[in-house]
## 1
Amino acid sequence: ELGLHGFEATLIPVLSFEFISLESLFEKLSHPECYGGLVFTSPRALEAIKICLKENSKNEAWLKSLKQRWNTKPAYVVGKATASLVEEIGLIPQGEKSGNAEKLAEYICSREKPNSSALLFPCGALKREVLPTVLREKGIALESLTVYQTTQHADLQESLSSYFSQQGIPASVVFFSPSGVKFCLQHVQKLSGDFVNHIKFAAIGPTTAEAMEAAGIPVSCTAESPTPQDLAAGIQKALHLQNC
């Protein structure tokens, strides 16, 4: 998408994920009758389920009855990437136009009754408290289970250094998560030196933009929704306004 807008984009992996508590996750998935539905705010949570389903016996149980039983309940998702992975495991996603946790929480509150069965929420260790807090305030039970941990990608520093030495200072740097800001920013600032003020910093959404502002960097654009098209349009606008 960025290429179609005339940009040359380099993707540098920032994060590594370690999956945990998978036995506990499948144990909970084996009891749809205990829950009112599922909530997914990250593609990684679905990857955790897919790892569980690689085991033949678990996959068999899923295909034979569990998938069907979960499909009588809602599977709430935050965006398109998560929605397509939910479809891959055979469930029907709802709420994919939300785009962030705040809007998904509102969507869930408009559909769920207080004091009904808890929603199962497989999530990461760094999950934000927005969604659990909003649901708690509305009396909607949520059972969180941490299924992955986020760490800095082993090659991050090396990848950034080689980018700067080969291609120089980028016109724009895009962050896709608060963790990305946390792990990357100091390296980018160090490698850019005095030229850091020439870089247009872009965010995939409001949560990431907040993390960037908190870290003291100006946000030149935030994608209207977290899609490649909106991101490309936002960057193009930010760069053209400065006549770069």
Note: The chain is about 45% helix and 20% strand.
## 2
Amino acid sequence: MGANESLPGDGPVPEVHHYYSKFMRECPSGQLTLHEFKKLLGLQGLDPQGDVYIKRVFDIFDLNQDGFIDFLEFIAAINLVIRGKIDQKLKWYFKLYDADGNGCIDKKELLSIFTAIQAINGHSDMSAEEFTNMIFQKIDVNNDGELTLEEFISGVERDKALMELITKSFDLSNVLKVIQNGRRHSV
């Protein structure tokens, strides 16, 4: 058996174990609240827009909508971010942008989430307005001012530059790096 071959069922156990011990160390109750989630990621004291974004991310990770992220929800989220196929990620992004949950993204929703992301990630090459207008111009095929999930996914998958931009702007792996490395807690 070569060095890269693994036994059946050998899967990502060490990785999951790593996240489990980190999760249990940071959150002994096994139920992560929004406050603990922010603390875990070192994202306290954000401006209101940043807070809105983190709350959206938290709500999407909270699959059963009980107000807590439990370990299974946490692992599902991490798995999506690390190993998710591109269309799974695009569905996730769509949910993130669709703030009112009506199944469509309008310009206001996209603008507010992108402004929030800029507040967390720092500057970007374009303003939130430019970004929003460019996305709608490229992928709102019927020009109704709203993007359906189908329009969003097929539009982004068709346009390599847009795909790169969206992936880079909304990349959650920075969040994961923080979780993996842990924050140095200042005493």
Note: The two ends are 49 Å apart (CA to CA).
